Amino acid sequence: MSRPAAPSGPAARRSGYEVVVGLEVHLALRTRTKLFCPCAASGDEAGATAGAATAGAAAAGDGSGETQPNRHVCPVCLGLPGALPVPNARAVELAVRFAAALDCAVPEVTAFARKHYGYPDAPKNYQISQHDRPVGLGGALDLPNGRRVRLVRCHLEEDAGRLIHPTYADHSLVDLDRAGAPLIELVTAPDLRSGEDARAFLEEVRALARALDVSDATPEEGRMRADVNVSLRRPGEPLGTKVEVKNLNSFKSVQAAIESEATRQERLLQAGRGVSQETRGWNEGGQKSYVMRTKEEAADYRYLDDPDLPPIRLTAAWLAAVRAATPETPAALRRRYAAAGLKPDDADRLATDADLSRAFDALVDAAGRAAGATAPAPAAQALANWLLVEVVGWAHAANTGVTALRLTDPGPAGRLAALVALVEAREITGPTAKALLGEVLAGADPRALVAARGLRQVSDAGELAGWVDGVLAAHPEVAAGAREQPKAVNFLMGRVMQASRGQARPDAVRALLLERLGIGDA
């Protein structure tokens, strides 16, 4: 059963104060176009059309390697008079998918509102967001440790542009390529009690967003950002004055900012001073926050329904179709993988990595299709071991990713499953399979490789005895000392495997060595 988040970590035990944390998480949706216009939603999409002109612009720029700014804008995202926004249906679908997966109440009618503020990177002097009719209300997210974090709301909004501050310049530059890109904002209740709690929550949100194909959720690319609201109180007392720390783009920064802000507030309270409600920025280099402005309340934003955007009615049939097309959540994947016999750590790793999860499911399907009465499919754990250890390791050494191997396609998945099946059926040894892995991932048929090179595992007692006796004769001193140093058997095992070019059946070799040496299992 899920339980509310409880205090944990150093931030939860401060001179009798309890740290209370709420998060506002922004996720860039995985759409081709912006929320209210046909401009490219991200630099990745834009790159397909920018081509050599973008590269030339970067070369002619300030030397930072950035592409030319303000290339993917139009009257709508520039906020020009008379321009009318049109909602991106795919963005609405993804937002509803995400809200439903979080057990939010999805309304029959959702609507956009104008949130007024004046910043240089907000060309309209307001942001199109949602106010009293968001795509999701309430809900909760259960963490792998069993804690439940309640949610307040989940809503759609457009992103702002970005300011660029040239070194030593007396001015700033505005890039509006990002302005109008679709975001989900997820607001939690103040249920978190430490930086560690916040990090665990963000990791689960990232896993969920990727599993649902809603967002890339890459903090390092600015596609997942978080604001933290931190306050201190005595346990059991009402909530203290909260301070918001804005635009944290790494989990490490979130954890550090919570710890730093809790320490700052503790010092103020111990000195008999009050905590001011304000918005602060985060200095990554100095690992401390700084005042940006006095914290606004909802009334300061002067929300009003956007007159250019009629409310959107979400029909029961449409909602049912969205739910039916929603992939499994990480929590559901953990349960399914555990039921299949995977170790908890492996189940969790697969459930929280969408690419690995899809590759694993494809492997299991391929192995099941190829299995027969005389050759059962490899166990799920064996497939997981090969994927998570051997394949991931090979991809890392090759400086590529698992997605580049296309293991979700039937052909690559079938070949890898066949390689694992050969090992599990003891037709080839593990070392032989590892030696063939690169060729199999490149497209070779493992059965054909084994047949052409005569690599099948040798179990014949006479042939094994010849290799074992030869190694014992070549290393008499090691053999003589094996009784006192049982680990010497491993050395002899290695020599036998070397002599057999990896084809000798390992368990049979070990049993024969122990028999020849007259010792028990080493």
Write a short abstract of this structure.
The chain has 522 residues and is α+β, with helices and mostly antiparallel strands. It has 16 helices and 17 strands.
Write structural notes for this entry.
This protein has 522 residues and is an alpha+beta fold. The protein folds into three domains: 21-223 and 299-322, no CATH class; 328-453, no CATH class; 461-517, Arc Repressor Mutant, subunit A. Helix content is 40%, strand content 16%. It is built from 16 helices and 17 strands. Strands 1, 2, 6, 7, 8, 11, 12, 13, 14 and 15 form a ten-stranded mixed β-sheet that branches. It has a three-stranded antiparallel β-sheet with strand order 5-4-16, with no helix packed on it. α13 packs across α16 (506-517). The radius of gyration is 29 Å and the shape is elongated. It starts with a strand and ends in a 5-residue tail after the last helix.
> What Rg, in angstroms, do the CA atoms define?
29 Å
First-last Cα distance: 44 Å
Strand content: 15-25%
Catalogue the unreliable spans.
Answer: 1-13, 44-65
Structural class of the helices, strands and pairings? alpha+beta
The major sheet is characterized as:
10 strands, mixed
State the helical fraction: 25-40%
Count of separate DSSP helical elements: 16
Total beta strand runs: 17
Number of domains: 3
Gross morphology: elongated
- Average pLDDT, rounded to a whole number, is 88
